[in-house]
Amino acid sequence: MFSRKARLKDIAALAGVSIGTVDRVLHNRGQVAEKTQERILKIARELNYTPNIMARALKTRKGFNLVSLLPAPADENAFWLKHPEGIAKAMSELEQFPINLTQITFNFNSESDFQKKAKDLLKKPPDGIILAPLFRSQSIQFCSELKNKKIPFVFVDNYLTETNFLAYVGEDIFRSGRVAGQLAGLLTAADEDILIVNIAKNIRNMHHLNQRVKGFRSYFSGSDRMKSKIFILNIPDTKRKTVKEMTDKILSDHPCIKTIFVTGSKSFIIAEYIHSSGHKQMNIIGYDLIDKNVEYLRKGIIRFIIGQRPEEQTYRAVKKLFDYLSFNKLPEKMEYLPVDIVTSENVDFFINNI
Amino acid sequence: MFSRKARLKDIAALAGVSIGTVDRVLHNRGQVAEKTQERILKIARELNYTPNIMARALKTRKGFNLVSLLPAPADENAFWLKHPEGIAKAMSELEQFPINLTQITFNFNSESDFQKKAKDLLKKPPDGIILAPLFRSQSIQFCSELKNKKIPFVFVDNYLTETNFLAYVGEDIFRSGRVAGQLAGLLTAADEDILIVNIAKNIRNMHHLNQRVKGFRSYFSGSDRMKSKIFILNIPDTKRKTVKEMTDKILSDHPCIKTIFVTGSKSFIIAEYIHSSGHKQMNIIGYDLIDKNVEYLRKGIIRFIIGQRPEEQTYRAVKKLFDYLSFNKLPEKMEYLPVDIVTSENVDFFINNI
DNA sequence: CTGAAAGCGCTTACAG
DNA sequence: CTGAAAGCGCTTACAG
What we know:
The structure is a homodimer. Chain A is an alpha/beta fold. Chain A is 45% helix and 18% strand. In chain A, helix 1 crosses helix 2 (19-26) and helix 8 packs across helix 9 (203-220). Chain A is elongated, with a radius of gyration of 26 Å. Chain A binds a DNA duplex through helix 2 and helix 4.
């Protein structure tokens, strides 16, 4: 009724040997007579043999220690709250296997903290690592150590081409900027202008955000669709006073600004200020479904949020690492998750939804 | 190093019985002395016992026959091309288990063909069914037979509340209409009007499409945000002549129409006509990432496509059925997939992406 | 170079 | 009411 899978036993019977010999051939271990070997391989091929992974897992029971090294979530970067959820989900699906995953976090603003945590974890080298490479040079150095120690690692959030990472799961950053550009274009009339706002304290953010700005601008470049002017504002911190002064200034200098693109997850700060300060209504576009952004999205103060599925990044990263370590399965190297366009009407589908 | 899971053996040792007895208690079979039973349950709880599903699967090796009963994809409903992909993906992930899934298709326009196929498949009753209930009364009847025969079934695409379905995976139809409404609102100025187009040959479509229309209208109702008028056009077939005549008429009667919402997957037909007929440019919003729609989306002739993840519907449906049959796991009953907002800039992420 | 045997954790039929 | 044993398909250490 069901076409049974071929077993070692079947191959052994046909080849007239024991299953031990078949196994030796199939795993390239031990010395087996050339002729026997050929015969066995031929039969295995004909029977389309693939091992029963249940039986293998049951027998082998090899455990792995994994480590995730991600920024600690804090008020100012609630974005990183979502990543542990994806890890938890993946681990619960893999509950049957003897895996440990230790979550290590580092201070979002401290390169030395990252270095310290990275160094510490290597004292007891894990079998695989999930890593958000926020700090470029420190990450490159760390990854070269991982390479020396032959520890595979998967990037989330961003990647560094100069390392030999096993895989990347995350946003196509440039592309997501283009999507934002398209949305801004839809919201902005020909006689209205656009403001890009970067809110960044540290250099990492700048790199990430600059990519989005590039993508955003690229959507408009070379086309005639854009008569609006595009201004840019870099706000160095999130103090209310700084935000107020800098925003007020640029908006009064350029009264035609109607659309504001906030390149990071802090659009709620701009939304809050615009909303409470008596400025005219703006079209605000931002990133990431953190609670405060969602709140302003529902209120209609933020128009669009672009989502990058942070939980799914870590979820898939864990799965990739597991498949690689357990089944030698080489994962798809670059896995760009969809750029989600989220509004007040479809936001419910995207939160608490992993 | 790894916290080992408790095994039957461990419980047996602590309870001073054999693993056979433990198993009998845990599966509520056979007669076990009250006292022994209590002791064993207590220990199992304390040890937080969960069975090792690898071992169980290896031993049990119970096979299932599943059937999917979905419309045959055809030129006129390319939407249904995607569903087999999700089935294929799920089956390849479950390759290790002795499962069969037979895909049965019926003619999208023929209720009698559905009835025939449904009847035929029951001659050899499967262990579970995945079903798209296009034809209401015929589906209800079929589902009541399934209930009698105790065959579990999962709906995709739509559901019928009066049946005892195991689960539904698909769109929140009303809600997706609301999302379309919001997008239309963004694209339409106060002095411009909106046209809703239903293209439907059969009654099923009408129900589905009407729900979307309701959602669409509900977005505008009771709010003052809408000064535009909303017209509706029902096109009974897709002949070029019919489309031309009816579209021309309504657009000349109402020259302020600027946005067209096509409630089904045939927005490419409207896009094609508008584009090639010398009408002024319209904002077109449609459904489903079938090739022709994607083509017009990329060209900028369709503005937004709303996606409902057809592959994921069947993928999850198969998984739910499998988990239910194999592990007695009751699935989440209503699983609404996200309403995806797709534009020319993020469409790449949503095609060939399962 | 090859075979026989133990055992992963579970389920099930049999014996008592 | 309970235990002992076989076996799912694989891997591995041992014996020859």
